[in-house]
Specification:
8-stranded mixed β-sheet; 8 helices; about 25% strand; about 220 residues; alpha/beta; globular
Length: about 220
């Protein structure tokens, strides 16, 4: 199973990147201490990196930690004067009130042949077992949407963005989860990657993709 941080860092290497949701607040300081903050890894490999986040506290922590070009900004109303090779939005769409506003807004900051990379929790992941057994939804209290490959692709298609690459990813095991649960999850995901807890889809403007060679996911 692909490690998300390594995959995203390699995908963004030597490219200009707008990182949406860069602070990972409220665990910004913890991520920095553990050296697991994605923005820190991106800063080492990107040719140009700008981060935005709607958390003033998260941005303050990043600025005090030496990160330049990080701005407090609502992703649903992006206002920037430059364009980027990559717009990276990991684990942010599921928190939004209106992700369509974000998708409309990134048209002005994404290069013509640039890529929008979206990472979201997988609606059909193995975590659904928690709901079946426990009766409570295994989702963050601030999430407003569930996304699957189909629904995310359909949403983006309404903004002339077509999917060009799909990967299923997993975060490291959580220590608080029962060992038997972790073992069962790893085994099932190994047999069926579509049960992975998260997915990443890359999109491009339909005008920059040869649709004659394009395969649309069902």
């Amino acid at each position: 199973m692909i490690d998300r941080t390594s995959y995203l860092a390699s995908t963004c290497s030597n490219r200009s990147v707008l990182h949406v949701g860069c602070s990972d607040f409220p665990i910004t300081a913890e991520r920095l201490r553990q050296k697991t903050l994605l923005h820190e890894h991106l800063a080492k490999v990107c040719s140009r990196l700008v981060g935005i986040d709607n958390s003033e506290e998260g941005i303050r922590i990043l600025q005090e930690s030496g990160f330049a070009d990080v701005l407090c900004m609502d992703a649903e109303s992006i206002v920037l004067r430059e364009t980027f090779d990559v717009v990276l939005a990991g684990d942010v769409l599921e928190h939004m009130s209106n992700p369509g506003l974000f998708l409309e807004g990134i048209k002005g900051v994404l290069n013509g042949s640039g890529r929008l990379i979206i990472g979201v929790p997988n609606a059909y992941s193995f975590n659904i077992v928690k709901y079946m057994w426990g009766g409570s939804e295994p989702t963050h209290k601030d999430h407003t949407y569930y996304f699957s490959v189909k629904t995310l692709s359909q949403l983006c298609s309404r903004y002339q963005l077509v999917p060009t690459r799909l990967v299923f990813t997993a975060q490291p095991d959580c220590a608080y989860e029962p060992a038997l649960y972790r073992i069962a999850r790893r085994a099932l995901i190994k047999m069926a990657k579509t049960l992975a807890p998260s997915l990443i889809i890359e999109f491009q403007h339909d005008s920059s993709v040869d649709l004659c060679q394009y395969y649309e996911w069902a």
